[in-house]
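task queued by scheduler; priority normal; single chain, no ligands, no partner chains; default sampling; output format set to C-alpha coordinates
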Amino acid sequence: MISGWFGGTYKDPKNFFGRFAADSGKVFTIYQELKIPADQRIAFERDRTGCVIGRDLANKYKLNLGDRMTLVGDIYPGNYEFTVRGIFDSPRSSELMYFSREYLEQTLPERRRGQAGVFTTLIDQPSSAGRIAAAIDNEYRNATADQGRERAAVLARLCVPAGQRQSFPDRDFRRRHVHHSAGLGQHHGNVGARARP
Protein backbone atom coordinates (compact mmCIF):
# COMPACT_ATOMS: atom_id res chain seq x y z
CA MET A 1 0.00 0.00 0.00
CA ILE A 2 1.19 3.50 -0.75
CA SER A 3 0.33 6.23 1.71
CA GLY A 4 1.55 9.61 2.82
CA TRP A 5 1.26 12.11 5.62
CA PHE A 6 -1.13 14.92 4.69
CA GLY A 7 -0.54 17.45 7.45
CA GLY A 8 -2.94 20.36 7.25
CA THR A 9 -5.37 21.76 9.78
CA TYR A 10 -8.79 20.65 10.97
CA LYS A 11 -10.64 23.74 12.26
CA ASP A 12 -7.76 24.89 14.50
CA PRO A 13 -3.99 24.22 14.40
CA LYS A 14 -4.28 22.75 17.92
CA ASN A 15 -6.45 19.90 16.57
CA PHE A 16 -3.62 17.53 15.83
CA PHE A 17 -4.22 13.95 14.69
CA GLY A 18 -2.83 11.59 12.06
CA ARG A 19 -4.11 12.39 8.55
CA PHE A 20 -3.05 9.99 5.81
CA ALA A 21 -3.78 9.78 2.10
CA ALA A 22 -3.76 6.04 1.38
CA ASP A 23 -4.85 3.42 -1.11
CA SER A 24 -8.38 3.22 0.27
CA GLY A 25 -8.97 -0.33 -0.97
CA LYS A 26 -5.96 -1.58 1.01
CA VAL A 27 -6.11 0.21 4.37
CA PHE A 28 -8.10 -2.50 6.16
CA THR A 29 -6.20 -5.32 4.46
CA ILE A 30 -2.87 -3.98 5.71
CA TYR A 31 -4.11 -2.82 9.12
CA GLN A 32 -6.19 -5.87 10.00
CA GLU A 33 -6.39 -4.86 13.66
CA LEU A 34 -8.60 -1.93 12.63
CA LYS A 35 -12.20 -3.12 12.82
CA ILE A 36 -14.95 -1.50 10.77
CA PRO A 37 -18.42 -2.69 9.73
CA ALA A 38 -18.43 -4.08 6.17
CA ASP A 39 -20.96 -1.53 4.88
CA GLN A 40 -18.83 1.37 6.15
CA ARG A 41 -15.69 -0.09 4.60
CA ILE A 42 -17.44 -0.46 1.23
CA ALA A 43 -18.83 3.10 1.45
CA PHE A 44 -15.31 4.42 2.11
CA GLU A 45 -13.75 2.45 -0.74
CA ARG A 46 -16.42 3.65 -3.20
CA ASP A 47 -16.44 7.36 -2.28
CA ARG A 48 -13.48 9.29 -3.67
CA THR A 49 -14.04 12.07 -1.12
CA GLY A 50 -14.91 9.73 1.74
CA CYS A 51 -12.76 9.19 4.79
CA VAL A 52 -12.60 6.81 7.72
CA ILE A 53 -11.70 7.91 11.21
CA GLY A 54 -10.82 6.17 14.43
CA ARG A 55 -13.33 5.94 17.24
CA ASP A 56 -11.10 8.12 19.48
CA LEU A 57 -11.12 10.89 16.87
CA ALA A 58 -14.88 10.57 16.33
CA ASN A 59 -15.49 10.85 20.08
CA LYS A 60 -13.08 13.76 20.56
CA TYR A 61 -14.69 15.93 17.86
CA LYS A 62 -18.21 14.46 18.14
CA LEU A 63 -18.13 13.21 14.54
CA ASN A 64 -20.68 10.78 13.11
CA LEU A 65 -21.21 8.92 9.85
CA GLY A 66 -22.12 11.35 7.09
CA ASP A 67 -20.51 14.37 8.77
CA ARG A 68 -18.33 16.63 6.66
CA MET A 69 -14.71 17.35 7.57
CA THR A 70 -12.64 20.05 5.92
CA LEU A 71 -8.87 20.02 6.07
CA VAL A 72 -6.91 23.11 5.08
CA GLY A 73 -3.75 21.83 3.47
CA ASP A 74 -0.24 23.11 4.05
CA ILE A 75 1.95 20.48 2.40
CA TYR A 76 -0.84 20.20 -0.17
CA PRO A 77 -2.33 23.73 -0.29
CA GLY A 78 -6.08 24.02 -0.63
CA ASN A 79 -9.30 23.12 1.12
CA TYR A 80 -10.09 19.42 1.08
CA GLU A 81 -13.61 18.30 1.97
CA PHE A 82 -14.39 14.78 3.13
CA THR A 83 -17.46 12.85 4.22
CA VAL A 84 -17.06 10.48 7.16
CA ARG A 85 -17.96 7.09 5.64
CA GLY A 86 -16.66 4.89 8.43
CA ILE A 87 -15.55 4.83 12.04
CA PHE A 88 -13.11 2.09 12.97
CA ASP A 89 -12.10 0.59 16.29
CA SER A 90 -8.48 -0.07 17.15
CA PRO A 91 -6.61 -1.78 20.00
CA ARG A 92 -4.39 1.32 20.24
CA SER A 93 -5.04 5.06 20.09
CA SER A 94 -7.19 5.84 17.08
CA GLU A 95 -6.92 9.57 16.57
CA LEU A 96 -6.42 8.84 12.87
CA MET A 97 -7.99 9.69 9.55
CA TYR A 98 -7.48 7.89 6.24
CA PHE A 99 -8.71 9.18 2.91
CA SER A 100 -8.24 8.33 -0.75
CA ARG A 101 -4.78 8.97 -2.14
CA GLU A 102 -6.42 9.06 -5.57
CA TYR A 103 -8.55 12.06 -4.49
CA LEU A 104 -5.43 13.91 -3.34
CA GLU A 105 -3.54 13.03 -6.53
CA GLN A 106 -6.34 14.41 -8.70
CA THR A 107 -6.15 17.79 -6.95
CA LEU A 108 -2.42 18.21 -7.47
CA PRO A 109 -0.58 19.82 -10.36
CA GLU A 110 1.08 17.27 -12.66
CA ARG A 111 4.57 17.92 -11.28
CA ARG A 112 3.47 16.92 -7.74
CA ARG A 113 1.69 13.70 -8.65
CA GLY A 114 3.14 10.25 -8.15
CA GLN A 115 4.90 10.92 -4.85
CA ALA A 116 4.77 8.43 -2.01
CA GLY A 117 5.68 8.81 1.62
CA VAL A 118 5.29 5.21 2.80
CA PHE A 119 5.24 1.83 1.11
CA THR A 120 3.67 -0.81 3.37
CA THR A 121 3.97 -4.51 2.61
CA LEU A 122 1.95 -7.29 4.21
CA ILE A 123 4.04 -10.45 4.56
CA ASP A 124 2.67 -13.97 5.00
CA GLN A 125 4.72 -14.88 8.06
CA PRO A 126 7.72 -13.58 10.01
CA SER A 127 9.99 -16.32 8.61
CA SER A 128 9.49 -14.79 5.14
CA ALA A 129 11.05 -11.51 6.25
CA GLY A 130 14.55 -12.27 4.95
CA ARG A 131 13.33 -13.35 1.52
CA ILE A 132 11.01 -10.36 1.23
CA ALA A 133 13.65 -7.90 2.44
CA ALA A 134 16.04 -9.28 -0.19
CA ALA A 135 13.40 -8.86 -2.89
CA ILE A 136 12.79 -5.26 -1.77
CA ASP A 137 16.54 -4.61 -1.73
CA ASN A 138 16.78 -6.00 -5.25
CA GLU A 139 13.90 -3.77 -6.41
CA TYR A 140 15.74 -0.70 -5.13
CA ARG A 141 19.29 -1.72 -5.99
CA ASN A 142 19.83 1.57 -7.85
CA ALA A 143 18.58 3.68 -4.95
CA THR A 144 20.66 6.62 -3.87
CA ALA A 145 20.22 5.96 -0.14
CA ASP A 146 22.65 3.79 1.79
CA GLN A 147 20.57 0.69 2.31
CA GLY A 148 23.30 -1.61 3.61
CA ARG A 149 23.33 -0.65 7.26
CA GLU A 150 19.61 0.04 7.31
CA ARG A 151 18.78 -3.45 6.01
CA ALA A 152 19.65 -4.93 9.40
CA ALA A 153 17.21 -2.55 11.10
CA VAL A 154 14.48 -3.53 8.65
CA LEU A 155 15.13 -7.23 9.19
CA ALA A 156 15.14 -6.76 12.95
CA ARG A 157 11.69 -5.24 12.72
CA LEU A 158 10.43 -7.82 10.22
CA CYS A 159 11.69 -10.85 12.12
CA VAL A 160 9.45 -11.55 15.08
CA PRO A 161 8.84 -14.72 17.06
CA ALA A 162 6.29 -17.00 15.44
CA GLY A 163 2.77 -16.29 16.58
CA GLN A 164 3.45 -12.68 17.50
CA ARG A 165 1.93 -9.86 15.53
CA GLN A 166 4.36 -7.40 14.04
CA SER A 167 2.94 -3.91 14.03
CA PHE A 168 4.43 -0.82 12.46
CA PRO A 169 2.31 2.22 13.33
CA ASP A 170 2.49 4.84 10.60
CA ARG A 171 4.53 7.28 12.64
CA ASP A 172 7.28 4.64 12.96
CA PHE A 173 7.91 4.19 9.25
CA ARG A 174 11.36 5.70 9.33
CA ARG A 175 13.05 2.44 8.34
CA ARG A 176 14.80 3.41 5.14
CA HIS A 177 14.69 6.09 2.52
CA VAL A 178 14.34 4.87 -1.05
CA HIS A 179 14.48 6.50 -4.43
CA HIS A 180 12.63 4.57 -7.10
CA SER A 181 11.84 5.72 -10.61
CA ALA A 182 9.57 2.94 -11.84
CA GLY A 183 5.83 2.50 -11.60
CA LEU A 184 4.22 5.70 -10.39
CA GLY A 185 7.23 7.88 -11.13
CA GLN A 186 9.76 9.40 -8.76
CA HIS A 187 9.14 8.15 -5.24
CA HIS A 188 10.79 9.16 -2.04
CA GLY A 189 9.59 7.19 0.88
CA ASN A 190 10.01 4.62 3.55
CA VAL A 191 9.58 0.89 3.20
CA GLY A 192 8.05 -1.18 5.96
CA ALA A 193 6.37 -4.51 6.31
CA ARG A 194 3.71 -6.08 8.48
CA ALA A 195 3.35 -9.76 9.27
CA ARG A 196 -0.05 -11.32 8.87
CA PRO A 197 -1.61 -12.29 12.22
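post-processing summary
- Strands lie at 2-5, 9-10, 18-22, 50-54, 68-73, 78-88, 96-100, 118-123, 177-180, 187-195.
- The longest strand covers residues 78-88.
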